[in-house]
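Researcher: If convenient, please comment on what follows.
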Amino acid sequence: MNPEAPLLIVWHSRTGAAEAMADAASKGADGDARVVRARDAQPDDVLKAKAYLFACPENLATMSGMMKEFFDRCYYPVLGRIEGRAYATAISAGSDGEGATRQIDRIAAGWRLKRVADPLIVNCDAQDAASILAPKTIAPEQVARCEELGAAMGEGLRMGIF
């Protein structure tokens, strides 16, 4: 992991799906990403990066609590200092992922970030307690989508597009 990489991937996962999405995006970024757990990410990490990928599960139609805690902890220390930077989202969901996406988009709007990719939502179709809590893997085609997102963000940074 390159500590000076321009893409910061902040992730939280309880069952493995969002972690796998973050790891795949990092692989696609080919050395241009720093992957940091939401609980460990600090305002300095956000300030050092030029673009962001936020990866988390949707829990009860919202982003996971640990991802929300990351935003709560980092929001004001970086407010007014990261405008115009690129971001994207990768959401693992049991159904549609729209609630988590909306929440992150509202926070990103407050930071004046610029969405550079459509939301990437992997539907794990977990609809009962046992399947919701079970460890998850994501299908190879979904892994490929995550790698493509990381590659696109890395290339956009290298080309100076964002």
In short: The radius of gyration is 14 Å. The helical segments are 17-29, 43-48, 65-78, 98-111, 129-133, 140-159.
